Amino acid sequence: MARELFTPDHEAFREVVRTFVAREITPHLAAWEAAGSVGPEVWRTAGKHGLLAPDMDVAHGGGGVSDYRYHVVRGEELARAGTLSPAFNLHSEVAGGYFAQLATEEQKRRWLPGFCSGELISTVAISEPEAGSDVAAIRTRLTPSGDGSFLLNGRKSFVTHGSLAGLVIVAALDPGARRPNGPPACTLVVLRPPVDGLLVGKPLAKIGLHSLDTVELSFTDVRVEPGDVLGRPGMGFLYLLQNLPRERLSIAVTSLALAERVLEVTMAYCRERRAFGQPIGHMQHNRFRLAEMATAVRVARAFTDTCVRAHDRDELSVEEASMAKWWNSELCNDVVGTCLQLHGGYGFTTDFLVGRVYAQARVQTIYGGTTEIMKEIIGQSLPL
After folding, report:
1. Annotated catalytic residue: which of 247, 260, 272, 376?
2. What would the pLDDT profile of 82-95 be if each residue is shown by its tens digit?
3. Catalytic annotation on 247?
4. Alpha helices in 81-161 (DSSP H)
5. C-beta of residue 161 within 8 angstroms of C-beta of residue 89
6. Which of 114, 212, 279, 298 lies at a 20 to 30 A Cα distance from 379?
7. What is the pLDDT of residues 58-80, one digit of tens each?
8. Closest CA to 255 of 309, 315, 336
9. Threshold 0.90, pTM exceeds
């Protein structure tokens, strides 16, 4: 079935992204994986080509087009290449979503030109050593300093490209903004490293996505000015809930795009690879497994594109985003694992796409909310 989601303008943008990936990312990915980090140059090049902020105001360096499908195109092409979609999506969609919705005009003038150009790489620091999916359990605190500013103290974990970031959105408890008889309030603040009191830990040793440095940040009396508070004080938990559907849809989009690409490559391999006098794709067991995967990704594609349309209309529910996220991320792991098996020994090498992305795909069922949390969200919405 032909997809009816995109216009010729979107497809023209896809060619720009595809060319960018082929020239600026794919040739360097192995070196970045070995080094454990991506240099800042690729971010500036992405910004120069208009890939980071298609929906931000032109006055701040963005594309000025309020159309989520451009983010979808970029995410799909990065994922299909087995590259850096989590990093770019975290910057453009997750952090970008907070800036677009919550930043004042003065804050936008300070932050967005660098955000759009790639000079200021952005990230979000929410998870903590003892607070992952349970965001309400965070302990990082924001307290008044006595002179109108605030002091930030605490720790954040699993902060992607935290050592490169020039803009860090931090979620912190704000006792001063506590609502009567309500839970502890949370406030979002923005830091521009390096700042006094901010310590960047060494990159975590991960099983995949080695090129994305993932670090722990610690804050010791980090001074935060009132102008660096994002949105209204005390409303941070609400802002996090409002932005999560977009983050989860982004993961659903890239998970499915990667699954589709790995399946395409595997079908080609099964046509060419011969065993016992015939292509391995002609063997009934293998053919049935390919048929199962082809059907699963086709069904997922229909629902995912429906979710994208709903998000563009500002109608995507938390439950629908959770459905897309857990289904597509689990599907991607199933497809990649099965396709690796069909590749045999070659699948266990990094010379083949399926081997390179095997470990990378695993994290998709964890970040952005685990599969179990997604099911709990969905389950609580059912008329039981």
Report:
1. 247
2. 886 788 899 999 99
3. yes
4. 85-89, 96-102, 105-117
5. no
6. 298
7. 999 999 999 999 999 999 999 99
8. 336
9. yes
